[in-house]
Amino acid sequence: MNLRRCAAVVATASVALLSVVACSTERTPVEPGTPPSSSAFPVSVPGALGSAEITEQPNRVVALTWTDADIVFSLGVTPISVQKAQTDSGYQPWFESAVGAGDLPPVWDGTDGGVSVEEIAALQPDLIVATKAFNLDRTYEQLSQVAPVVHFADTPSSETWQSATTTVAAALGKSEKGEQVVGDTESRIADAAQQNGALDGKRFTFFVGPTAESVYVVNSSQDAGASFLDQLGMAPTEFATSQPVSTIPGRAQISYELLSQTDADVVIATGRPGTVEELAARPAAAALPALVRGAVVELSPTQAQSIAFPSPLSLGWALDEIVPRLDAAAQK
Q1: pLDDT tens digits, residue range 44-96?
Q2: At 108, phi and psi to the nearest 5?
Q3: Residue 65 sits in a domain of what CATH number?
Q4: Is position 8 within any domain?
Q5: Which residue blocks in 123-246 are alpha helix, DSSP H?
Q6: 155 domain residue, yes or no
Q7: Domain that residue 33 falls in
Q8: Is 235 found in the same domain as 151?
Q9: Is residue 319 part of a domain?
Q10: Is the distance from CB of 262 to CB of 240 less than 8 angstroms?
Q11: What's the rounded Cα separation, in Å, for the pair 202 and 236?
């Protein structure tokens, strides 16, 4: 059985929820569990690289990643510019659908895959959102001179979509909205788990990024995709969880000599174009009972990204695009 081309990166974990309170002319740091205030500004939103000091309601918000663009829009604010996605249109389909073709903001490419401070400054933002900006440390000081930069509490890969949403909501003066968006999204996932009951208790093998010598296997909920699957009632195989974690959180790297030990109730696979097909063609993979009976879910790059870089928008899209396929595979 051949598998389709796909690509994904991981990023999960959890950090403290952030809410806003500002009841005086002093900027008040956001503390976990703080109830929303009727006067949200000024506010200080702490981050790993420094605090974002926001004096008034932001009106010109720039999103440094498309995940951040998702979060900002889910809170009722359309960013004035977003990072270009790796799609033909330059936008992720869930963002494009939610915003509408006629209202899409312009995209920016950056410089050699990074952030062009000059390009961002030219947009004249009053807030920069960067909870998933992996190279933010290179430009944070410069960007902070342009506008307050709301970002991750520890690292981009350890910022859950729930925490990122609540943090950004605090910066926008929309803490109550943030809590609502998180709650609604989690409720939708819980409903999907009930509606796709075949997934409950199923073990999965999730292959990521096959190369000529090895392949990654998701082995814990530190991987964002695994965290999503966990909410649906699924879990990695015992073989996967027994493997040592690689330099990428939530993944083990295994040689192809171990492929015969990777069978599962459902096999999921994603990687660069052509590499997943090569993986499936290996005799040890082709002989896996899951592949023989067709219990395989092949994720395209966009599908994989929807759960690898989760947001309220992308997860809602994944519930429609991915979960029914997982349920069908689990019944084979």
Answers
A1: 999 999 999 999 999 999 999 999 999 999 999 999 999 999 899 999 999 99
A2: -130, 150
A3: 3.40.50.1980
A4: no
A5: 136-146, 161-171, 175-195, 224-231, 238-242
A6: yes
A7: 28-172
A8: no
A9: yes
A10: yes
A11: 9
User: Quick one: which of 274, 204, 289, 328 has its CA closest to 2?
Assistant: 274
Nearby residues of 85 by Cβ (< 8 Å), 6 or more positions away = 66, 91, 92, 95, 107
Q: How far apart are CA 19 and CA 32, in angstroms?
A: 6
Q: In sequence order, what E strands does the chain have?
A: 28-29, 43-45, 52-54, 61-63, 81-83, 107-108, 127-130, 149-151, 203-208, 214-218, 235-236, 251-255, 266-270, 296-298
Phi, psi (rounded to 5 degrees) for 105 = -75, 160
The answer to whether residue 327 scores a pLDDT higher than 90 is yes
Find out whether 170 and 20 touch, Cβ atoms under 8 Å: yes
19: CB partners within 8 A, 6+ apart: 30, 31, 32, 33, 34, 35, 36, 166, 170, 175, 178, 179
pLDDT tens sequence across 2-48: 443 333 333 333 333 223 233 333 333 433 333 334 478 999 999 99
Residues 168 and 215 placed together within one structural domain of the fold: no
Please list, in sequence order, all residues whose beta carbon lies within 8 angstroms of the beta carbon of residue 249, skipping any fewer than 6 positions away: 10, 12, 13, 157, 158, 220, 222, 223
Q: Are 41 and 116 contained in the same domain?
A: yes
Residues 167 and 199 in one domain: no
Q: How many domains does the chain divide into?
A: 2
| d(C-alpha 19, C-alpha 69), whole Å | 20
Domain shared by 307 and 233, yes or no: yes
239 DSSP 8-state letter: H
CA 244 to chain CA centroid, Å, is: 23
